[in-house]
Amino acid sequence: MASAGQYVCSAGVFFCPLPGTYALEWSAIELSQILEVTIMEQCTNEQMAMRVSLITIVQNIVLSILKLAAGLLAHSGAMVSDAVHSASDVMTTFVVIAGVKLSNKASDKDHPYGHERLECVAAIVLSVILGLTGLGIGSSGIGKIRAGGSALAVPGGLALAAAIVSIAVKEAMYWYTRAAAKKTGSGALMADAWHHRSDALSSVGSFVGILGARMGMPILDPAASVVICVFIIKAAVDIFRDAVSKMTDRSCDDATIQALRDTVLSDKQVLNIDRLNTRIFGDKYYVELEIVADADLSLSQAHDIAERVHDAVERKFTKVKHCMVHVNPTGGHL
């Protein structure tokens, strides 16, 4: 029996054998829930990101060859363009690999706080690529609508089959990459997941257009492309805003801050919290604390309290890379 990681990898590229007819009943949401629980549990975040990226490269190469062959044989210009699009996606995956690799480099003399923000840079690059992809799809659709019948041809059935395969594979890769991104907290992987979704939506447009053309309604293809364009650009803007906010030392959300407070105050010798500051640095959290302890404690005892609080925070919150604790005495301080 395959391990969880191997099994999910197979599911990610749609080669996972599922018993009986129940395979047809698995929805994308069910697949996502399974992936989030079982996805490569023994891998480090970097190993997981590398594995997902390599699978993405392989499936994009295979899809490019399939779409190109189908487009040429079925005389479908849209499918040939989709093949070129899939081939270009290989380059965006290399951006993810570079971002993850660089962001996981150990701290050094010139970068004592590490390199986590480089992954945000990769996410920004991918969001721009995603936005340009959406604009390209929308521009192409508007151009076809304006051109009318001169740009609307009737493709063969093979192109329709290729579009269906592309939708299925790309949607599976979206959920697979999304699960890995949520598990690792990787903005670059999440951006790549949405790139898969944009490709799936693009193929939906191709499918609708090819089917519409074969049913005497070729205008459906460019109309669908314009609608899809809006969703893709919305996703690109969201990814861009999230990456920028992480690069500008945005604080953690209220729920995380409250959980931090509860953890700190669970120590019986911590009487109060004077200050609790957090900042998100890439996909890591940095915490600065000023706690209140009995003024009659010795320096050594106060230090022990600070160490306990520090260890408790970093133990409970795995995303916390650094926690600094300062102890103030009761009765005020300078």
UniProtKB/TrEMBL annotation:
**Record membrane topology:** Multi-pass membrane protein
The record's family statement is: Belongs to the cation diffusion facilitator (CDF) transporter (TC 2.A.4) family.
Q: Which Gene3D superfamilies does the UniProt record give?
A: Cation efflux protein transmembrane domain (1.20.1510.10), Cation efflux protein, cytoplasmic domain (3.30.70.1350)
Q: Identify the residues that the record assigns to the Cation efflux protein cytoplasmic domain, covering every copy.
A: 253-329
- Protein name per the record: Cation diffusion facilitator family transporter
A Pfam family annotated for this UniProt entry: Cation_efflux
Cation efflux protein transmembrane domain residues are: 54-246
Q: Where in the cell is it found?
A: Membrane
- What is the superkingdom listed in this entry's lineage? Bacteria
The GO cellular component terms are: membrane
Q: Which PANTHER family match?
A: MITOCHONDRIAL METAL TRANSPORTER 1-RELATED
One GO MF term attached to the UniProt entry: monoatomic cation transmembrane transporter activity
Q: Which InterPro entries match?
A: Cation_efflux, Cation_efflux_CTD, Cation_efflux_CTD_sf, Cation_efflux_TM, Cation_efflux_TMD_sf, CDF_Transporter
What keyword terms does UniProt attach to this protein?
Membrane, Transmembrane, Transmembrane helix, Transport
Membrane-traversing stretches: 57-77, 121-142, 148-169, 223-240
